[in-house]
Amino acid sequence: MTGRAIIITDMQYDFCAEGSLAVQGADDLVPGINAAMKSYSLVIATKDWHPPGHISYASSHRNAEPFSVIDTSSGMQELWPDHCTAGTRGAQLHDDLDLRKVSLILHKGMNTDLDSYSVFRENDKITPTGLHGYLHEHGVTQVDLCGVAADVCVYFSALDALEFGYTVTLLTELTRGVDVPPGALEKRLGVLKNKGVELA
Ligand code: VGL
Ligand code: ZN
User: Fold this and answer.
1) Which among 4, 32, 47, 194 has the fewest CB atoms less than 10 Å away?
2) Which mutation among 11, 13, 15 tests ligand 1's pocket best, with the greatest number of atoms within 8 A of CB?
């Protein structure tokens, strides 16, 4: 029984400097995350892990620009530059991330026609990733979230964690956002705070 877990979201090269979907400051988080891990008995890391031609890639759609939103058969879809294609360098976790205490590396977003921001559920809000079951079996009731992007995957993971009944802390010093359009990050942090996420 551990009670509390740290979930390190998507610390992959495509979200780091020079990555295709770089999140400003993501690389700088690595030392802090490595230090934080030491305080947890359960450490989980996730990877955004998409097949080529993924629905979230602007390049998969005709006349579509990255950072726009389109209507698809799976609902509204934000479009991004190609990123985290399974097996590529950009999809690898940052080499300096200390994996020694990581018990689970969860891959998400593997369905071509369905995106998955949250580490708990895909964007249809139905398809589970299996993480909830894993945490439940380890007796986890509190999750501390870090990694990237604060206003995308970390944000939706925090909302799902609340919905699944966890006590949720966002480690604000250990996360960074895409912030497109500017202000999106602050707005979403406000939503999390109002819903009961502790911003630590
Ligand atoms: C993410 C955009 C697209 C993330 C993943 O990890 O926050 N953002 N796919
Ligand atoms: Zn993605």
Assistant:
1) 194
2) 15
